[in-house]
Amino acid sequence: MYRIDGPGATNDNKFTQGNPTTGTPATQVTADFMNALQEEIAKVIEESGIALSKVDNGQLYAALQLMIGMVGGVPDATDVVKGKVELATNTECTTGTDTTRAVTPAGLAAAIAAAGAAPPPDASTTVKGIVELATNAECTTGTDAVRAVTPAGLAAAIAAAVVAATTTVAGKVELATNSECTTGTDTVRAVTPAGLAAAIAAAAVGAATTSVAGKVELATNAETQTGSDTVRAVTPAGAAATYAKKSGDTFTGAVNAPSFNTTSARRYKTEISGLPTSAAMDAIRHVEIINYRLLDSPDREHVGVIAEQLIGTPLEAFVNCNDDGDAESVDYTSLFAIALSALQQADARLSAIERRLAAGGLWGAFRL
Q1: Fewer CB under 10 Å: which end of the chain, C or N?
Q2: E strands along the chain, which residues?
Q3: Reduced to 3 states, what is the DSSP secondary structure of residue 289?
């Protein structure tokens, strides 16, 4: 609906009759205005359920009657039917027997006062009752014991209670981005698994060289024994399989070295005594010097002794046996010392013979 706005209408959208004497025309009724008026009326009739009829000029009135409940009247309200209701007086509310009238606030108060009903108690930790809601500030302070916390107050208290985490204080922490993890300078954010992976990838350790520290692959025993690999690291097992221990190892092949030095200084020895005059000579009488080839190196000829032949002789102390008691090797350094002592004894005996021969005038006949 709208007000007339056709030619001749006043500024406040009113009709005028015009003035023939002054030549002022009356307000022109436009088609838009009449159509709007028609549709407004038709809308009321149709919404009431009445079909428009050209011969019935009372349809708008009938529609209004239906809409405001004038036809047949509005039914009284019940507990199952919506309708009109009469308000109860305070006395009727106090009596409490009327089932057809509605209670007003004043009637309710009168009924409560007449019944002597006491107001509910304040709530406590042991008594159910009414409670006042705490403000956000009261929730944050945390000392009020008689008010109830609202969701907003709880959120405010949590926000105030949770502090930022540091190296010495537990608290809330923001997660670092992968870029921050890779940079490695942030000291207030926490690293995620993805950030850790990104940082490790960025700091990937390269291969170790003779001049650069880095990651290295372990060499197999075979690679250690070959001795040509320059990029792998030797393991203890590889070293044991390749190199001799400081003591107790057995070599099955030739060992080449500029010299072999045996510990012999007096400060390393105890119970020192001279070898009996005939001991060395008696000892070497049990030694059989042989030529032989080792099973592991048959292409090379050796000169030496049989270790088992020294068992039960004065030279048995120079035989090395395995854990089963079987002879394994001979201490040739000690045998050399025995041979040297025997040579000294032989030289001493020869010198004595020479002196006796010289004293008897026979030395010249035997002298070479």
Answers
A1: C
A2: 86-87, 101-102, 132-133, 147-148, 174-175, 189-190, 217-218, 232-233, 290-294, 297-304, 319-321, 327-330
A3: coil
